[in-house]
Every structure is written in C-alpha cells, then in structure tokens.
C-alpha cells in the first residue's frame, strides 16, 4: 500500500514538474518574441526602394523607362513602403493583436500609431494637393481609393481587419505609381505637381503635428507649465474676469510617458523618410527658393531624434539630476524641426 502511494506521489510530482517546465518554456518564448517584436524598424533609402519598385514594375509592364523614377514616384513609393513596413515588420502589425505577445506590448503599437498619422497626412496631401493642378481639377481615381483605406480604424482585428484595408491602400498607391511610369491608350497618365503652394499646404499640417507632439512630450516634467497667448478658464468661476492669458498643461501620467515617447518616435521615423522623398521630388523648387538647407535641417533633427536608446525603459529624470529625461530630449529635437518647418512654410509662401 505504501509503495503504491509513493509511486502515485512520484507520478503527480512528475506531471507538475513537466507542466512547470512547459509553462517556463512558453513564458521564455513569449518574452523573446516580445523583445524581438519591440524593436523599431531600421531606416531605409527612399531612392533605392523607389528604383527597386521601378524595376519590378518594368518587368511586369514592359515599355516604360526604368532608368529614372518619374516625378512623384519616390514620394508615393515612400508612402507605400512605410505602410508595408508597418504591416510586415517582425511580428507584423501589432496594434490589433488579441493574443500574446502582441497584446502585452504597448511601445510598438504606439510607435505604429505615430507613423500611421504621418502616413495619413502625407497621403491626404498627395491626393488633395500634389496630384491636382488646381482646386477645380479632377482628383486622381487611384488616390481617391488609397487615402480612405489608410483612415480605416487602426485597431480592428477582423471583419475587415486593419491589415486587409491598409493592403488595399498600398495596392492603390502602386497603381498610381504604375500610371506615372506607364501610360497611353486607355491608361490615363498620372500627374504630380511639385509646386511651392502644394508643399506649403502640406508643411502647414506638419507644423501642427510637430507642435502637438513636442507639447505632449514636454508635459512629462513634474508640475505644470503655461503656454502664453492661450486662454484657460476656471470651471468654478463663470465670470469673464477669470480668463487668463495662459493655458495649463497637465503633467503626463507616469504610465503614459512611454506611450507618448514611442508615438513621437514613430512619427519622427515616418516623417524623416517623407522629407527625404520631398527633397528628391521637390528638388527643383527647393533649389529655386533656396530652401534645401531648411529641409536638411529638419532631416538632421529627425535623425538625431531616432538615435538608439540605451535604457530598457523611458527615463524621466528631472532638472539637472543624475538621470536623463528622454521625453524632453525628443521634444527638443522635434521643436527644432518644427522651427525649421515654420521657416520652410514661409519660404514656400513667398512669391
């Protein structure tokens, strides 16, 4: 009797030990996958990616010039490639994941949202400004299809999934690019107008995005700050005398500091590549307006903003203490880029 009980005890312990080892292996795999999937995508060459796509299109549709991308091709391909990286980087698109390790991660989903906002703005600029001769001209049919797909909700898991809708947007961008390269007969030539007024309208949107991000990053410090020129009203006092010349910025909650930081990193990554594409396709007007140096300043600031981080967490030091404040450092780079964007807007707005 005692021997049988001992055997049963050994078996039960063996089962528990096996389950423990299995659980440990699963946790280790989830941890390693989460670490791998949490890495930010590398930067890419907008010109090289455009040439690669140009040659692939030339193989499928012979007859076009595959030696030099047509005007607007680099810009459009950059938008398509940004979307493709969002969808096909390690782990794929994580924002709508419902299973581990994706559902346990929050840094990369915030990074994805920051990049997605910049992608949406740049696609809207392409549809409404860069591909239209004037306000009364007809919009490009492929761009009219592409833009709404990127505005589909960013966290839909199914029916339809976010990935499926964004893939349709990429496909429509590729069709527009094909019409920049191959046209004639029933295929209408796609247009791209690299004008100063078109660029000015897009830069106006970028200025607002950068201003909002730098303000949110700056709110990581303890206490509150005042933005001059904006009104704040005490809700407990309805009198007009209560209006003050300043707007109170609430401190970012501790658990949201890394969310805003990675959202700004994603926006910086996407905007860096978009600016490099603008530098290529708007080269003529930038040189004519002597604005190339201004664009280079913006590009340099975003490259600095994307420098590697050496801490496993987003540090939030204060004042001149021992630890850095990652949010304020990134806010400084974005504020300098925003200042250059203001200069670029003014240059493009001059006659």
What features would you describe in this structure?
By secondary structure, this protein is mainly α. It folds into two domains: 149 residues; 114 residues, no CATH class. It is 61% helix and 4% strand. The protein has a two-stranded antiparallel sheet with strand order 1-2. It starts with a helix and ends with a helix. About 5% of the residues have low confidence.
Shape descriptor reads: globular
Approximate strand percentage: under 5%
Query: How many DSSP helices?
Result: 11
Number of domains: 2
Helix content: 55-70%
Low-pLDDT windows of residues: 228-246
Mean pLDDT level = 86
Question: What pattern of helices and strands is seen along the backbone?
Answer: HHHHHHHEEHHHH
Would you summarize the structure shown here?
By secondary structure, the protein is mainly alpha-helical. It has helices spanning 2-37, 46-60, 73-88, 107-130, 141-150, 162-181, 196-218, 257-281, 283-288, 292-305, 326-349, and strands spanning 225-232, 244-249. It has two domains: 45-193; 208-221 and 252-351, no CATH class.
Structural features:
11 helices; two-stranded antiparallel ribbon; 351 residues; mainly alpha; 2 strands; globular; 2 domains
Present the secondary structure layout.
Elements: H1 2-37, H2 46-60, H3 73-88, H4 107-130, H5 141-150, H6 162-181, H7 196-218, E1 225-232, E2 244-249, H8 257-281, H9 283-288, H10 292-305, H11 326-349
Antiparallel strand pairs: 1-2
Helix pairs in contact: 2-3, 3-4, 3-6, 3-8, 4-5, 4-7, 4-8, 5-6, 7-8, 7-11, 8-10, 8-11, 10-11
